[in-house]
Amino acid sequence: RTAVTVPRLAEMRARGEKIAMLTAYDASFAAVCDAEGVDSVLIGDSLGNVLQGHRTTLPVTLADIAYHTASVARGTRSALVIADLPFGTYGTPADAFNNAVALMRAGAQMVKLEGGEWLAETIRFLVERAVPVCAHVGLTPQSVHAFGGFKVQGKTDAGAEQLRRDALAVEQAGAQLLVIEAVPGALANDVTQSLAIPTIGIGAGAGCSGQVLVLHDMLGIFPGKRPRFVKNFLEENGSVQNAIGAYIRAVKDGSFPGPEHTF
Ligand code: KIV
Ligand code: NA
């Protein structure tokens, strides 16, 4: 399989091929995702939830992400490796760059950070210095205390307008990929149509250019209530390998997410 690169993501969007992404935190699961044909693995700061047991992603450190990125990179052959910059590691362009360098040295090929308009200068600073950037808008979990909880975003007219401005600002600043989390499907679809770069939805409907899920969530390993946008692919598919393969096919053929997974 040819390696998935940042330019190939743009080509996939241009030819209408959906991009299938999953989180991975270790070499073994990363190798399974890669062998099944996932386009990208994300070392998400969701590891604070699913590996470390925290209620939020705020305690996750750069060293945590770097450690797991190095493990995932060793398990990956073709999938694009994207690593999250954790909370508090990109407050200035210089901090963002120095911390992105640490993640790229660990094996990341792109970094992801949460925010819109306010991050434009930082994104430009990174991209000019050869750090490919994935931005993340909508329900950005590092903002949980600013939001007052994990709430669907973009439901009001003002919220929808802000999301549109954020998406445009990060694209203009040079971001090559955009994760849109927990916003109404119609809005995420509009935003996707308004951009040239690919969008990756999670709880954002089928109109995005691709999808991402937290690996533990799609295998049915999560504490508490299943979020609306999650589907357990393990129960119907019998093995981790088959579950991951079925997820990738469902993203590619547009059957996941369905209306029942969408706000
Ligand atoms: O940390 C994470 O896993 C993420 C994805 C859910 C987008 O940011
Ligand atoms: Na994240």
Automatic annotation (TrEMBL):
Q: What is its EC number?
A: 2.1.2.11
- Protein name, as recorded: 3-methyl-2-oxobutanoate hydroxymethyltransferase
Q: What is its main location?
A: cytoplasm
Q: Which PANTHER family match?
A: 3-METHYL-2-OXOBUTANOATE HYDROXYMETHYLTRANSFERASE
State if Plastid is listed as a keyword: no
What does the record give as the organism's lineage? Bacteria, Pseudomonadati, Pseudomonadota, Betaproteobacteria, Burkholderiales
Q: Any idea what job this protein has?
A: Catalyzes the reversible reaction in which hydroxymethyl group from 5,10-methylenetetrahydrofolate is transferred onto alpha-ketoisovalerate to form ketopantoate.
What species is given as this protein's source?
Answer: Pararobbsia alpina
Which EC main class describes this enzyme?
transferase
Coding gene? panB
